[in-house]
Amino acid sequence: xxxxxxxxxxxxxxxxxxxxxxxxxxxxxxxxxxxxxxxxxxxxxxxxxxxxxxxxxxxxxxxxxxxxxxxxxxxxxxxxxxxxxxxxxxxxxxxxxxxxxxxxxxxxxxxxxxxxxxxxxxxxxxxx
Length: 128
What we know:
This protein is an alpha+beta fold.
């Protein structure tokens, strides 16, 4: 499967496989639908964060990733935006691209990441 998954999905998957109920507070999703059908729709965007050893909330970087694009925001508000299909080595930061289609996806990922940051209790952020 080429589904966008997270390590947060492991726990709900194990719970479902054992027949246990899934607590409402879980952030991950069970991967059981993908075990049954690797092509099943799963999620459009996956998020991650890295604060490093002894990092505090609001430090480090965060990422929002679709199948085609990756958006990264650092704790210094530096932004990186990569086309994962044509630039899998992430050599060309397209955060300042003039392409309208590219910008539309970027704005959607920026908003999705800002919403996720708020939902997880991270610092507030909005594009200047």
